[in-house]
Amino acid sequence: MSLYTSDNPVFATFSFYAALMGAKTLFMAFLTARQRYRKMAFANPEDAKLNKGKTKTDDDVERVRRAHLNDLENILPFLSLAFVYVGTGPTLGCAKFLFRTFAAARFLHTFVYAVVVIPQPARALAFFGGMVVNLYMAYAILTSYASAL
């Protein structure tokens, strides 16, 4: 059985969570647009003119944009690390736990940061939940392949 086919349940699980995280990242653009229209705060003069709004910076819009940027900074490494991690031959249970934990942490991070603002340490805990998963997978990859050098 090849590690990178749908016959491998670890790769199938990775593929599901990779698609979920990709969709979540794409969805953040719509959340930003929703906030811009709610606040009538546009980044470009042509958008402001078309929507009878103003070119301005709004704290709520910036909060969603920062959450989106944080997704890009964390989900992209997850996708790379998790793909290589599949090649280390982890157990299905461990891989599912890591992928689910990461996905839950990213959804929770967006929720407490950009949807319903909840004071710290909620955002930090969600951030570190995902970070720990990425760091663990990096460690597992490095230790798994260190002997090949």
Describe the structure.
Pfam families: MAPEG. Conjugation of reduced glutathione to a wide number of exogenous and endogenous hydrophobic electrophiles. It catalyses: RX + glutathione = an S-substituted glutathione + a halide anion + H(+). Keywords: Acetylation, Endoplasmic reticulum, Membrane, Mitochondrion, Mitochondrion outer membrane, Transferase, Transmembrane, Transmembrane helix. Its EC number is 2.5.1.18. The chain has 149 residues and is mostly helical. The chain has a single domain (9-148), classed as Four Helix Bundle (Hemerythrin (Met), subunit A). It is built from five helices and two strands. The protein has helices spanning 9-39, 45-50, 59-86, 92-115, 122-145; strands at residues 41-42, 54-55. The chain has a two-stranded parallel ribbon with strand order 1-2. Strand 1 (41-42), helix 2 and strand 2 form a beta-alpha-beta unit. Helix 1 (9-39) runs parallel beside helix 4 (92-115) and helix 3 (59-86) packs antiparallel against helix 4 (92-115). The longest helix has 31 residues, at 9-39. The two termini are 25 Å apart. The relative contact order is 0.14. The mean pLDDT is 94.
